[in-house]
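Run log, item B.
One chain of 286 residues. Sequence copied directly from the ordering sheet:
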Amino acid sequence: MAIRTTVLQDFAVFGQVRWTLPEVEGRVGEILNSRPFILFVVLFLLPWGVWLLWDKLPEGRIPLPFVERVPPSPEPDPAKYRLMIAELAEQRAGLASRYSAAGDEEERRKIEDEARVLLEGVMPALMQCWLGTPWDFNGTSETPGEGTIACGYFVSTVLRDAGFRVERFRLAQQASQNIIATFLPRSEMHIRVSTPYQDFLEEVVSRGAGVRIVGLDNHVAFLVVSKDGTVRFIHSSGARPWAVVDEAQEQAKVLQASNYRVTGNLTGNREVLRNWLTAVDWETRT
């Protein structure tokens, strides 16, 4: 306080003009609040400060931790999708030929294991080719990025294009439990109601890796579980952003909000793998 008073007193006698301390404080306040002073700060001091900061930072970038950085929206990739379908069909045919010629059960089981590894690698990649394709309740697109696609048609189309001989339209129109029942027995369908989200995730991970179909209150999707316990929820979302998305378990609001959840591990079932290898036609459960 003493320093401030001394400075203002010196200012008060500057140029032989004597002002009282309150008068000095008032004049300083007028200057700070005046339009010319504000313009001076905005037009000269502020840009100068920004330039100094810009010059000091690497690559001239100003970090803005308070601004949420939104990643660019993914683009559908129909060309990659077609190529992957063709390559997978060729690989399936090679495995099927070996499977047919296998001399014993042990050799067949090894080929089934190869089929599982192949599907668990390729199927999520096929799903990701659809990312960004718009959702619509009546969407029936067969090509990523063309038209719109509903959740059931996303599931049935990816399955068909991965080599499962399904009735695409009929399967897509079924309740999620019937979609899963088309491939798996009731004993391998896990139904949970009002289960806390974290408990549900831990239970799914505990059953091992695989490409699963998951049915919710009013939705059907893929649930991809990796060997390291990572869970991805890939689906044609009827909620924001109303498109095909690939979400980590923390981002999967639709999965988290659902009261009803039913799951079935397609690639974890040997009969499913055998039927895929031998190109069996799947009759839709209704």
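Observations after the first pass:
- Residues 1-17, 57-68 have pLDDT under 50 and may be disordered.
- Residues 152 and 172 are 4 Å apart (CA to CA).
Flagged for discussion on Thursday.
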